[in-house]
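Table 4 source record.
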Amino acid sequence: MSAEDWFEHFWRQRGMVLPVVRFVYAHLADYSGLWWDRILPSDRLNEDLHLPLVCWFDWEMSLLDDFSNELGIAIEDPDLLTQAVTVEDFLTLLNQQFLQAA
């Protein structure tokens, strides 16, 4: 499933925007090696996907830098992402930052 298909299947009806979904789809696949077309909104970042184990230790900071560089949105609070439990929580936080900056 492409990023656009993943967006249509899971995220459009949840109010997410395509640039954020594309960003997460591409970057978290690169960081983790996981196939993001198989990831569900309800998957838990730590317990199900084990992101701290499969990504390098500072992946959150790299993600925030990439988010700023690619989408032009700086997230001032690096601890923001630690609030996310599920993939949906994670996308919601990034989506809110994107929409606030627009």
